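Example (one chain per record):
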Amino acid sequence: MKKILLALLGTLLLTACGTGSYTVVSGKADEAMLSFVSPRATAISVTVDNAEYSLKTVKTTAWKKDRNIKATTQNTLIVTPGQHKVTVRIDGKEVLNKTVFISVQEHKIVEL
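Predicted structure:
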């Protein structure tokens, strides 16, 4: 009889722990990234949907297959996903004027 009571008590204690339901929600952040590269590091003025930003381009070499990830992350614009009008100026001269579409968590590299 003691063994049965002890077994029931042990079962009750073990099942009482961790009751309830836990909800975990994960997903991608609702953001997209824009980076600008050119053959040499240059100060640029970027306008994305009438918002003005001052950045430096990331220097890239044609013979290198990999990008300079550390420099790219320092010169990245975080924007909302969707369609954006992007204008890039170097020393007041317009170099790029186009509309780009960026998906969620997409990192678009614009070569100047």
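Caption: The chain has a mean pLDDT of 81.
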